[in-house]
Automatic annotation (TrEMBL):
Coiled coil region boundaries: none
A Pfam family: 23S_rRNA_IVP
Name of the protein described by the UniProt record: Four helix bundle protein
Family annotation (SUPFAM superfamilies): IVS-encoded protein-like
Length: 122
């Protein structure tokens, strides 16, 4: 079985774990949110790794960086959803803080990866 380049990225590995943790977290959201916040947070959290995978198949550094930027945007969207879940009292303060810290780490890694790709190809 082939291992693709994105699978070797620490950033993608963290995004993969984060997606799983989000899916576990939202199991306790109210059922009436299944087509609302639950759906949105699943999509944005999944999109982080999806964009990294898709971007890894691009040829130019500029294209790769674009997909990393999209992954970053998805992470920021997920921050917004975490805030909303906390505001609606679907998650406790401790969970909120823990997920914000995980997103901080992911966004920092995404920025570093984007900068490295653009610097390396300059």
């Amino acid at each position: 079985m082939r291992i693709y380049s994105f699978e070797k990225l620490d950033t993608w590995q963290k995004a993969r774990i984060f997606r799983k943790e989000i899916y576990i977290l939202i199991r306790k959201f109210p059922k009436e949110e299944i087509y609302g916040l639950t759906s949105q947070i699943k999509r944005s959290a999944s999109s982080i790794g999806d964009c990294l995978a898709e971007g890894s198949a691009r040829i130019t550094a500029k294209d790769k960086a674009h997909y990393i930027t999209m992954a970053y945007s998805s992470a920021i969207e997920t921050v917004n959803h975490i805030i909303g879940a906390h505001d609606l009292e679907y998650i406790e303060e401790e969970e909120y803080i823990a997920f914000r810290l995980k997103l901080d780490e992911l966004t920092n890694k995404l920025n570093a990866l984007r900068n490295a790709i653009l610097k390396d190809k300059a």
